[in-house]
Amino acid sequence: MAKKEILLGVTGSIAAYKACDITNRLRELKYNVTCVMTEEAKYFISPLTLQHLSGNRVITEMFAPLDLKRGLTGFALPENHDPLHTALADKADLILIAPATANIIGKIANGICDDILSCTILAAKAPVLIAPAMNDKMYKHKSVKENITRLKSWGYKFIGPEIGRLVCGYREIGHISETETILKEVKRALR
């Protein structure tokens, strides 16, 4: 049986460090993981770190050249040479965005495709799990709440956030869910 393909979207949150643990744990569960990072995520974690943990090239650019002999590491090059975002979307059995910022949630909810991650998500038919991580005031903002409600009505699943210590020092809602909670939801979504 072929390994399940998980695309892990990593966005520009301080919680991006959790993507390392999530990637490592997904690999332990025998999933193939390809990480797609936003430009902002690279301020918090190195693509090289996720490349070593996932065993696959980390995708950070919309128009990255393909190795025509090998295609995308972890993905076979499509015979019709589809654009990168559609090739990623077609191959994914599941998309997990962890951490998910208010920015990526808003982009998806409003059909904005201005980076490799947002384009891939909107092109995908695979289930999408979103693990938000942000300041409590941002999470409670009416626009974020409306975007989450809209995405839930379209079938997107949310994991958390939880009450925990935030970067601003407060203990409030907005902390990314624990890795175990995220893994449990991944396994449930892939059943």
Task: Show the helix and strand layout.
Elements: E1 5-10, H1 18-28, E2 32-37, H2 47-54, H3 84-91, E3 94-100, H4 102-109, H5 116-123, E4 128-132, H6 136-139, H7 142-153, E5 157-158, E6 162-165, E7 171-175, H8 179-190
Parallel strand pairs: 1-2, 1-3, 3-4, 4-5
Antiparallel strand pairs: 6-7
Helix pairs in contact: 1-2, 3-5, 4-7
Molecular structure report:
- The protein is an alpha/beta fold and 191 residues long.
- The protein has a single domain, classed as Flavin prenyltransferase-like (Rossmann fold).
- Helices cover 37% and strands 18% of the residues.
- The strands form two sheets. It has a five-stranded parallel beta sheet, sandwiched between helices.
- α1 links the parallel β1 (5-10) and β2.
CATH topology: Rossmann fold
Physical arrangement of strands within the biggest beta sheet: 2-1-3-4-5
Count of strand segments: 7
Mean pLDDT score, rounded? 90
Q: Provide the number of structural domains.
A: 1
Shape: globular
Which regions have little confidence, pLDDT < 50, spanning 5+ residues?
Answer: none
Write out the CATH superfamily name: Flavin prenyltransferase-like
Q: Structural class, please?
A: alpha/beta
Please work out how many helical segments DSSP would assign.
Answer: 8
Helical content (DSSP H or I, runs of 4+): 25-40%
Reading the helices and strands in chain order gives EHEHHEHHEHHEEEH
Question: How much is the radius of gyration in Å?
Answer: 16 Å
Q: How can the largest sheet be summarized?
A: 5 strands, parallel
State the end-to-end CA separation: 14 Å
CATH architecture: 3-Layer(aba) Sandwich
For the record, the CATH class is Alpha Beta
The percent range for strand residues is 15-25%
